[in-house]
Amino acid sequence: MSKLSQKHLLGIKDITREDIELIFETADNFKDVINRPIKKVPSLRDVTIANVFFENSTRTRLSFELAQKRLSADTINFAASTSSVKKGETLLDTVNNILAMKVDMIVMRHASVGAPHFLAKHIKANIVNAGDGTHEHPTQALLDAFSIREKLGTVTGKKIAIIGDILHSRVALSNIFALQKLGAKVMVCGPPTLLPKFIGQLGIEVEFDVRKALQWCDVANVLRIQLERQHIKYFPSLREYSLYYGINKKMLDSLKKQIVIMHPGPINRGVELSSDAADSQHSIILDQVENGVAVRMAVLYLLAGAKG
Amino acid sequence: MQKKLILDSDLLDITISRLCQQLIENHNDFSETVLLGMQPRGIFLAEIIHERLQKETKKSIPLGYLDTTFYRDDFRRRQTPIKANETRIPFIIEGKKVVLVDDVLFTGRTIRAAMDAMIAFGRPATVELLVLIDRKYNREIPVAADYVGKAVNTLPTQRVLVELEAQGHKQNKIWLINKD
Q1: Given Cys at both, which of B25, B43, B57, B135 links B37, Cβ 3.0 to 4.6 Å?
Q2: Which of B70, B87, B94 to mutate to test the interface with A (most CBs of A within 10 A)?
Q3: pTM check: above 0.95
Q4: How far apart are the first and last CA of chain B?
């Protein structure tokens, strides 16, 4: 009746437009559930999910954990920093040991590109990619597109500019795939050093001037400058970046049009986005966080239910 | 595939009138009563009954839709998950007399799930069940309807098909279908 085409959610690249729409329709219902007096449904009560995080996360891990709890799943959490990974255990051994404890699903974040794809080849459990290096972050892209759909009614035909550190961003790539599948026009904008060389070949527009990008778009998805991934200097200073690419409320007001501001968090306030812009009426940043729980519930529900 | 007509348009009309009268008998002025139509097919019957009751009593009666998908007991036991429908209960059910409305009562499992789903919105004073067709001898759990349009003897292999004008059919007709 309603089934995803994939057994795992490894990336947006692997799923279809129909999959995305099914996730959205299911998430609509879960959004209703999490706003009820009793915010919980018993659907996944016989499912155990391990959240395996080899990289730090606040929002994504909390959001996944909350989604799992709202679905009545049992959860275990694993953070690499406090585990035997430090003693030299391999990824596959770590995960197989977790699965030996009768775990049905794995939600994994890993610093290495392709880590969840590698796991999917070797284990039976459903895998949800919660971010692999600079590659994909599918649930973030889904909740971003879901939030645009909620705010603007549809994603199809809308113009979305992704602004900031595209080079180190897994959110950017997943967003590009998701938005293109849903029929939106996509632009990336940032300093040339922070844009991947051949990004234009994905069929998107590339812009270096943030004002032109804002003028063009209906929605600006502003990304964080990922200093922790930048091992060399990509721009002279944060102050200079903020002067050329930082978005503030004055700029938004001068556009004289409706614009939606999104950010996947955490925000570097005063760098890519000023406080007055982040907290303005243009911003749907906190809606994104709320929708994140509903969208992740939908993904977990549809993956867990597809077993038959 | 054999089809047998259980209720035609005229008979259905009389049946629905009777169900409404029974409700009026038990619920007085409906000041404490709310109707909940069960998604996906019970909502059409609920809307018809709601309209008639409001006409008869000249009172405004709250009507909501209840979806049981996330509360079902067969999740992960089917090949594919069931698609969810909208739940819309824009009123308080705590302390109210709830009437659940569905088209067909078969195994009773949907009603069990419905009670779970309903409790998430509060604790009603009483819960009653109204069904148009009661398929006797097919219950898998102890559930009984308080208001029954028509009780029918059916085999588990048969199917009851409800065609209502509200669902886009030409005429109100209810069929019993033999699957070959």
Answers
A1: B43
A2: B70
A3: no
A4: 6
